[in-house]
Amino acid sequence: LQGTAMNRLINLLFRRQGGFLLVEAILAVALTALIGLGASMAAAQVCTQTARNADYTTASRQAMNAIAWLGQDAQVAQEISGIDTFPEDDLVFSWTWWDNSEHSATYSLADGELRRTSSSGGEETVSVVAVYIDDDESLTFCSLDDGVLTISITAALNRASVTKSRDIVPRPSL
Fold it and tell me: Whole-prediction pTM value?
């Protein structure tokens, strides 16, 4: 008797199981493909945005580094030359220390590299201050108005472009 009751229960459970219809199978495959397509598009967008953010961060840091170096030398300089012609020509800051030693910092821009040549006591040191600097005179420039030196630097990397500006009141000539 127990076997018969068990057989009835099994027959009742599996009686109406005929498998998937073709329409159900097609819908399941289409839904899976749609979810996969959406996931791959989202992953591609994340990768693209990550690269864009990295380019922006790099350009921003390069522009800020250039502004920091230029600003530091501008604040101690007693004489500044090349303001109107930078970046086409060199920008030169010069000053005399308390011990009457002559110092200068010359900035030149070539191939996107801003180089600083510092001269102190007859020794010269050349260093690359920033890279990816745009040499377009409308984007990277210096101007002096009413005793205020304005420095504007644009760094561009791939599709990211960042402009940083700073207004500096140079030290008066002693």
Answer: 0.72
